[in-house]
Amino acid sequence: MPERQSSRKDAIRNREAVLAAADALFSRRASPEDITMADVAAAAGVGKGTLFRAFGDRAGLLRALYEARLEPVREAVETGPPPLGPGTPPQDRVRALLDAVLCFKLDNGPLALALEDSGSDSSPYRADHYERWHGLLRAVLEQIPGLTDSDFTAHALLAATRADLVEHLAGERGIPRERMREQLAGFVAKVLAPGPRPGGTVEE
């Protein structure tokens, strides 16, 4: 029993060391593609076998690092106060959720780009993190009276926060962070605003 507990502690310690090393490497390199599993293993002081046993492959390591960085946001969404947390009016929460996604992508651009490129079956829309955001946003949209097709609307709103688009706007177009947040808030407001809907109906 003591040996098993010691092995478990070693595994936890190795995992933490790998995530810390990977986090430092991704923070320093402009392109995540330049970072190999061997680089991470060397920086963490563990063997490549340990790395692959803990995370499976490079995509698994990226997901674990992404989840570690996202943890504070997830806690705020699940149990925090308004505007991210439960109990917030749905329109306000939709805006806050998308703003949180945008800010996270701005703060973690290279990692977000790498992760979106490593989705299941080469599709970022099948990645676990995307499905979670989409499911949460869809559930909140369903609480807005008169809003139809929350599933598609959630996809359309999340498309405005794709890492490649955020990188293009912030990097190549040079749009300042606060301006991007304002633009996204304006877009969300237009999508959620009462008005004509397909079929000629009007929300009140």
From TrEMBL:
Keywords: DNA-binding
One Pfam family recorded for the sequence: TetR_N
Lineage: Bacteria, Bacillati, Actinomycetota, Actinomycetes, Kitasatosporales
Transmembrane segments: none
UniProt DNA-binding residue ranges: 36-55
UniProt-listed InterPro entries: Homeodomain-like_sf, HTH-type_TetR-like_transc_reg, HTH_TetR, Tet_transcr_reg_TetR-rel_C_sf
Protein name: Transcriptional regulator, AcrR family
Stretches assigned to the HTH tetR-type domain: 12-73
SUPFAM superfamilies with a match to the protein in the record: Homeodomain-like, Tetracyclin repressor-like, C-terminal domain
PANTHER family given in the database record: HTH-TYPE TRANSCRIPTIONAL REGULATOR RUTR, POSSIBLE TRANSCRIPTIONAL REGULATORY PROTEIN (PROBABLY TETR-FAMILY)
